[in-house]
Write a structure and sequence with these properties.
Blueprint lengths: L1 H6 L22 E3 H8 L3 H9 L5 E4 L2 E5 H9 L9 H18 L1
Antiparallel strand pairs: 1-3, 2-3
């Protein structure tokens, strides 16, 4: 969890506790949907979609929907590294082929 705290920003939509200080987000049992969305760099609707797909657990606390923090941390930890797909290169090659064919005729 310490590695996640160093990499990710503090939550954006949380309230301080009685002392006026917020614990780091990985130390909280639950997050509100907006904070979870900010940490995952997605929309609140996507948080609900991830929950529907079984990748996050939503809980009702005091009439509010919250996201279990361990699920957010797991999604971040297990995210696959991004690699270029090559689609752009293939599209450029096809475009150049079409232009060359047009110019040749």
């Amino acid at each position: 969890m310490a590695a996640l705290r160093a990499v990710l920003p503090a939550p954006v939509a949380s309230k301080p506790d009685a002392d006026g200080a917020l614990p780091p987000w990985p130390d909280r049992p639950v997050l509100n949907v907006l904070t979870a969305a900010a940490l995952l760099a997605c929309s609140p609707a996507q948080v609900y979609a991830l929950a529907g797909a079984g990748k996050l657990v939503l809980v009702k606390l005091a009439g509010r929907t919250s996201v279990r923090t361990d699920g957010v941390a797991k999604l971040i930890r297990e995210a696959e590294p991004w690699t270029p797909s090559g689609r752009n290169r293939a599209a450029l090659t096809e475009r150049h082929r079409r232009v060359s064919a047009r110019l040749a005729s």
